[in-house]
Design brief:
Layout (H helix, E strand, L loop, with lengths): L1 H10 L6 E5 L3 H12 L3 E5 L5 H9 L3 E2 L4 E2 L5 E3 L4 H6 L4 E4 L6 H12 L6 E4 L4 E4 L2 E4 H11 L7 E5 L4 H5 L4 E6 L3 H11 L4 E6 L2 H19 L1 H4 L6 H7 L1 H21 L4 H4 L2 H11 L3 H10 L4 H7 L7 H16 L6 H11 L4
Parallel strand pairs: 1-2, 1-6, 2-5, 6-7, 7-10, 11-12
Antiparallel strand pairs: 3-4, 8-9, 10-11
């Protein structure tokens, strides 16, 4: 299989594309690996806040501290000062590896360069959902709006969803993802660009379903993470430690049921929730990520503010940030009979109650 894969790689060398990843964080850097293994011209450009980080990275022989893995020297890593120069030449794909809060900054930078010329295909690694004019707004829609406000109206944005932790990808463990675009042809083209013998890419035209699932699974992974504490009110810690999976399984079932309701509400397909972007991503996120860890503390009886201050003060908890962002709107649109788990989790965080 490996020999056949290398044979394929040699055949497609002439199809090499130039890919630029904005953001030198864990996922952006890990994502560079399958791009590199496909013989693409792969470049990482740091944000204006990452100059010192990139200096340190190069000083340590490209050992990425968040991944504990060395980035191959052939992957070119630049500080922000090279942004214009790097993107001024022909680029086939621009990948967003910045945080959700950095999307506006990235839109500003791209609008300087592409105001009067065609912008390349865009791919979002970043996940998010926000409220704009009292309506839900996906991160892909937010980027499209921000670019349109800056006079770039013709854009083609795809997104990546699925159970893929950065550290695993950086170590080339088998990972499966879905590339989503409202145009299935574009989604397939990008999926084919990235597919390797360990990074398994599928594609979907359900951009809304993939993006909504990817965002809200962070809230539900907190709920599943709370299973150890919630599984019994009188069992010992040892008993709960060994037997909480009964409760976790029920919470996963309820999570998927409610995710289907919410995804449908935002014009996505219910079946997407049972795929990589929904069930798959929920599984990996519930297995010990930041959201699940916060859920575990809440399940033990701490309020969100207590857990944040004493256990996770400097850690970003995406599910909690999202809960605060959509709390008002989701309480207007649904009641606890319709989405009991989602609203229970959101309101516990926003109202800071047990």
């Amino acid at each position: 299989n490996i020999n056949f894969y290398n044979f394929q790689k040699n055949i497609i060398k002439g199809l090499m594309s130039k890919i630029v990843i904005i953001g030198a964080g864990a996922m952006g850097s890990a994502f560079a690996l399958p791009c590199f293994d496909n013989n693409h011209d792969i470049n990482i450009i740091g944000t204006h806040l990452e100059n010192e980080f990139i200096d340190q990275l190069k000083k340590n022989d490209n050992l990425h501290p968040a991944l504990n893995t060395k980035i191959p020297q052939e992957i070119k890593i630049f500080k922000f000062e090279k942004f214009d120069e790097l993107l001024d030449s022909k680029t086939d794909l621009i990948v967003f590896g910045v945080s959700s809060k950095g999307i506006e900054w990235a839109a500003d930078q791209l609008s300087r360069l592409y105001k009067n010329r065609e912008i390349p295909n865009l791919l979002m690694l970043t996940k998010g959902l926000s409220i704009y004019n009292n309506q839900y707004e996906l991160l892909v829609d937010k980027l499209k709006r921000l670019l349109a406000e800056r006079e770039i109206k013709k854009v083609d944005i795809s997104a990546v969803g699925g159970p893929c932790l950065a550290s695993g990808l950086a170590n080339r463990v088998h990972s499966s993802v879905v590339i989503a675009n409202k145009n299935a042809h574009t989604a397939k083209k990008i999926a084919d660009m990235l597919n390797t013998n360990y990074y398994h890419t599928s594609y979907s035209d359900d951009l809304n379903g993939v993006e909504v699932s990817a965002a809200i699974k962070n809230i539900f992974s907190m709920a599943v993470g709370a299973a150890k504490g919630l599984c019994s009110s009188n069992a010992t810690t040892e008993v709960r430690e060994k037997n909480y999976l009964n409760t976790a399984s029920a919470l996963i079932k309820q999570s998927i049921y409610e995710m289907e309701i919410f995804v449908s509400h935002l014009n996505g397909k219910k079946e997407t929730v049972k795929g990589l972007a929904g069930l798959g991503d929920l599984y990996v996120s519930s297995g010990g990520g930041r959201n699940a860890k916060m859920g575990a503390y809440i399940g033990e009886g701490l309020t969100f503010s207590e857990a944040k201050k004493t256990k996770m003060e400097k850690v970003t908890v995406e599910g909690a940030d999202l809960a605060k962002e959509i709390a008002k709107k989701i309480n207007e649109d649904f009641d606890e009979k319709k989405l009991p788990l989602m609203l229970g989790m959101i309101n516990a965080i926003v109202e800071d109650k047990k």
